[in-house]
Design a protein that fits this description.
This protein has 248 residues and is mainly α. The chain has one domain. Helices cover 73% and strands 0% of the residues. It contains nine helices and no strands. Helix 4 packs antiparallel against helix 9. The radius of gyration is 20 Å and the shape is globular. It starts with a helix and ends with a helix.
Length: 248
């Protein structure tokens, strides 16, 4: 076999190995996120027994939200980040794009953790992380559902669809990083309220995380994704109305 043929044969293997390592890293992040929530960093069960006024540590919440953010967002962005079918230069662009996404997700995680800490410090959440007031939880479901039906939600999804394949092999490393930062910020505009769903139902546990992850991934599928977003919105609004009618 010639050197050129050997190189061509090795290239797909390297790409597949990189993809496996990347997905393995995501799996580890999922384990870490669930473990942090179960350990009480997200207002878990042992936090339920803390005396009034004792709030989870902000750094613990930040770590949990950062892990949850990566775990829930990466599957939705995998088509954008997958190193398969790319040369070394484009693979580098993918990694820099990912760093830009991480920067945007980290900023959102910091804000979510701050809000979570404030709610817990005020005694407004249960041990699981769900809002203590069932009426507030039902209203939050309605707000999330209504946002799914707004033109702003559609605008964010349309923008994400238009930049599913940003150029990763030109303009220098800074271009890929900034593209990831802009894309990640727009993505946060689309899904930020969905990230609040655990406060309304399920708490900081695997089931609500998995549900949000699945919906985020489906929403990236162009027009079918928009329809799924609207269907989820209507379901959440209906759930909210039923909960409120039943007394929260």
């Amino acid at each position: 076999m010639s050197d050129a043929a050997a190189s061509a044969a090795a290239h797909p293997r390297r790409e597949h190995a990189a993809a496996i390592l990347f997905l393995g890293g995501v799996a580890v992040v999922w384990v870490v996120a669930v473990a942090l929530a179960a350990a009480g960093h997200g207002g878990g069960e042992h936090a339920h027994h803390h005396h009034a006024g004792a709030a989870p540590s902000y750094l613990g919440l930040l770590g949990m939200w950062a892990a949850m953010m990566v775990a829930m967002m990466v599957p939705a962005e995998w088509p954008l980040l997958a190193p398969a079918s790319r040369g070394a230069r484009r693979a580098l662009g993918s990694y820099l794009l990912f760093l830009g996404l991480l920067a945007a997700w980290s900023g959102a995680s910091a804000l979510l953790a701050l809000g979570h800490w404030a709610l817990a410090a005020g005694g407004l959440t249960l041990g699981s992380g769900v809002l203590a007031s069932s009426t507030a939880a039902a209203l939050l479901l309605g707000v999330i559902g209504l946002f799914q039906l707004t033109p702003l939600k559609r605008l964010c999804l349309d923008h994400c669809s238009r930049v599913r394949g940003p150029p990763l092999d030109g303009g220098g490393p800074g271009r890929s990083f900034l593209a990831g930062l802009r894309y990640g910020t727009t993505g946060m505009g689309s899904c930020a309220l969905l990230m609040l769903l655990p406060f309304a139902c399920g708490g900081m546990a695997l089931a609500p995380m998995a549900a949000v992850t699945a919906l985020l991934a489906v929403e990236k599928a162009g027009r079918p994704g928009l329809l799924a977003a609207r269907a989820a919105g209507l379901a959440l609004v209906g759930w909210s109305a039923v909960s409120l009618a039943a007394g929260g």
